[in-house]
């Protein structure tokens, strides 16, 4: 089954029902998302260092999972986070703690950003993974996310966005002030409603839909 585009509310509902009614732990869904995104990236081709830009929420947690799998497979990887460590909670925190035990502690860049250090990191990368902001963003992208998105867009490095390009409105497909211009988007469960907007493709690039283990019955009950 290939579900049609889903809205922000339906995306959130799918997660809630999977966790609370079907009993699938949220950390399992995060693991599936990160593992599937890692496998996609390998298929696309990795030819050098990968930098993963993470937020402090579940989208960043997906990024932590990707970092772990890439490291375990022998690929050079660096994760950076736009927050302090104590602002990471829930399943994302669990995956962050795993990274620290692997001696793969992310670089933390609370505002203001160290533009020189981040620019150098991006210039040495062959892929940037955008795991900054998920579907929940509704208002204009704020600092320091806004500045980091602009840095990502100023590089010539290919970008893989997780679920949707950070800064893109999930339902309307427009930039909320600024948004990542991804080369590829690894969207979870189903394409997002905003992807159908005529101007959204300049942000999404090539769209790949990842199966993260949501039961078909659940999807069919919510997506029409």
Quick description:
This protein is 40% helix and 14% strand.
What topology emerges from the helices and strands here?
Elements: H1 8-20, H2 26-44, E1 50-54, H3 58-72, E2 77-81, H4 90-101, E3 107-108, H5 115-123, E4 127-131, H6 145-154, E5 159-162, E6 184-188, H7 201-204, E7 206-210, H8 216-222
Parallel strand pairs: 1-2, 1-4, 2-3, 4-5, 5-6, 6-7
Describe the structure.
- The chain is of the alpha/beta class and 224 residues long.
- The chain has a single domain (25-211), classed as YjeF N-terminal domain (Rossmann fold, 3-Layer(aba) Sandwich), CATH 3.40.50.10260.
- It contains eight helices and seven strands.
- The chain has helices spanning 8-20, 26-44, 58-72, 90-101, 115-123, 145-154, 201-204, 216-222; strands at residues 50-54, 77-81, 107-108, 127-131, 159-162, 184-188, 206-210.
- It has a seven-stranded parallel β-sheet with strand order 3-2-1-4-5-6-7, covered by helices on one side.
- Helix 3 (58-72) links the parallel strand 1 (50-54) and strand 2.
- Helix 2 crosses helix 3.
- The longest helix has 19 residues, at 26-44.
- The radius of gyration is 16 Å and the shape is globular.
Characteristic key phrases:
224 residues, alpha/beta, Rossmann fold, 14% strand, globular
Instruction: Please tell me the CATH architecture by its name.
Output: 3-Layer(aba) Sandwich
Label the overall shape. globular
The Cα radius of gyration reads: 16 Å
Give a quick account of the main beta sheet: strands, pairing sense, barrel closure.
7 strands, parallel
Q: What order do the strands of the largest sheet run in, or round the barrel if closed?
A: 3-2-1-4-5-6-7
Derived from helix and strand composition plus strand pairing, the structural class reads alpha/beta
């Amino acid at each position: 089954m290939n579900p049609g585009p889903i809205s922000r509310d339906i995306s959130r509902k799918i997660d809630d029902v999977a966790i609370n009614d079907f009993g699938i732990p949220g950390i399992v869904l995060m693991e599936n998302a990160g593992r599937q995104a890692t496998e996609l990236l390998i298929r696309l081709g990795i030819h050098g260092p990968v930098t993963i830009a993470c937020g402090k929420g579940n989208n960043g947690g997906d990024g932590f999972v990707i970092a772990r799998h890439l490291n375990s497979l022998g690929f050079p990887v660096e994760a950076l986070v736009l927050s302090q460590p104590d602002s990471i909670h829930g399943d994302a925190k669990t995956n962050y703690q795993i990274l620290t035990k692997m001696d793969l502690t992310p670089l933390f860049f609370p505002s203001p950003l160290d533009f020189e250090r981040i620019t150098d990191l991006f210039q040495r990368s062959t892929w940037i993974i955008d795991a900054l902001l998920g579907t929940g963003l509704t208002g204009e992208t704020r600092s320091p996310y806004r500045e980091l998105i602009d840095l990502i867009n100023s590089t010539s490095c290919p970008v893989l966005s997780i679920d949707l390009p950070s800064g893109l409105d999930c339902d309307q497909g427009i930039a909320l002030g600024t948004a990542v211009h991804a080369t590829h988007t690894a969207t979870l469960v189903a394409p997002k409603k905003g992807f159908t907007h005529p101007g959204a493709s300049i942000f999404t690039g090539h769209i790949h839909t990842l199966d993260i283990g949501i039961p078909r019955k659940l999807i069919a009950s919510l997506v029409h």
